[in-house]
Amino acid sequence: MRIYSVCMLCSLIISSTASDTGVQPIVALVGDDVILPCTLRHTVSAVYQSIEWQRPDLKPKEVHLYRDEKDDLVLQNPVFRGRTSLFKEELENGNTSLKLTRVKLSDAGNYTCYIPLLNHQKTIIQLLVGAVSRPVIIIEGMEGDEVVLRCEAEGCYPEPVMEWCDAQGRVLPAAGPTETSRDREGCYTVTSHVIVPKSDNNTFTCRVQQLEIKHMKERRVHVPDQMFPKTCWLTVLVTVLVTVLVEAVAVGLYLLMKKWILTFRKEAWTSLMKNKETTKNEEDEASVLSLSSV
Ligand SMILES: *[C@@H]1O[C@H](CO)[C@@H](O)[C@H](O)[C@H]1NC(C)=O
Ligand SMILES: *[C@@H]1O[C@H](CO)[C@@H](O)[C@H](O)[C@H]1NC(C)=O
Ligand SMILES: *[C@@H]1O[C@H](CO)[C@@H](O)[C@H](O)[C@H]1NC(C)=O
């Protein structure tokens, strides 16, 4: 019996060292309750073990401590106060998972589940915390005969990628880069604009994706035809006529001005020449006068 349990301990140690890495991260959303999984290899009871849940990057690093068959939370980091528990009825099955309630953004990180007596059993659990919101679309106005749409998603973490699609799911180029801001808790608000022409199915989708937490949310909008500025044939005809008329008047005015300026210049030139001749005559007369007086 004694030999048997020693061997069992050996195999526990060996199997646990072999499979400590490469675990999928656990994803939780802000406000959720989450279970950080940890089990002893080979179903042995954990009731008489010490169980240490830690966050090595924090000070103090204790998240939850269990020893002498009860919780010992004297050393617990205050940020986890009242939010951690073990499944006491599961301990005898070797299930030492930790329940963390009311998850916050700051809970993201690597947790270790450490069983000192089974010296090498240390499981590392990576917890990712996200915050999500469904985007909102606003019809913002017109630009020419197109409609400007605005999409906004607030309180997101990690930073989401926002894109626009048409009814067929094709990505539409946004009107400018996505605007991003952060609030005090570190959550992102992102805004993106798109300018859309009238089409036979004015359905547009704003999609927000957070790849790290495998999260996607969409909002679809149908822009009614009457939102698009009218471009009926009469309007086009009137526009063309008015343009032609304005241009004709402009050309006419220009020609008139040109003619007027030419005439003016000619007159000015003629009078200048006349003036010059008169002056010359006067000078001649003056010299004649001075000669005669000598
Ligand atoms: C451990 O117990 C919890 C609570 O009952 C359960 O949700 C979880 O799946 C269990 N883990 C394993 C590995 O059995
Ligand atoms: C947690 O561990 C993962 C993989 O082991 C690593 O990439 C990541 O940087 C760690 N996170 C923190 C907060 O230490
Ligand atoms: C627009 O087209 C999509 C797919 O082609 C369809 O699912 C949707 O019902 C259509 N919407 C309208 C308002 O016609």
From TrEMBL:
Signal sequence extent: 1-18
GO terms (BP aspect): regulation of cytokine production; regulation of leukocyte cell-cell adhesion; regulation of T cell activation; T cell activation; T cell receptor signaling pathway
InterPro entries for the chain: BTN3A2-like_Ig-C, Ig-like_dom, Ig_sub, Ig_V-set, IgSF_BTN/MOG
Coiled-coil residue spans: none
Listed GO CC annotations: external side of plasma membrane
Domain Ig-like: 31-125, 143-222
Membrane-spanning segments: 233-256
Single GO molecular function: signaling receptor binding
Keyword Disulfide bond: yes
Highest taxon in the source lineage: Eukaryota
Keywords attached to this entry: Disulfide bond, Glycoprotein, Immunoglobulin domain, Membrane, Signal, Transmembrane, Transmembrane helix
Glycoprotein found in the keyword field: yes
Pfam families according to UniProt: C2-set_3, V-set
Subcellular location(s) of the protein: Membrane
Protein family: Belongs to the SKINT family.
PANTHER family for the chain: BUTYROPHILIN (PTHR24100), ICOS LIGAND (PTHR24100:SF151)
Identification of the protein by name: Ig-like domain-containing protein
Organism listed in the record: Oncorhynchus tshawytscha (Chinook salmon)
Lineage: Eukaryota, Metazoa, Chordata, Craniata, Vertebrata
Name of the encoding gene: LOC112241156
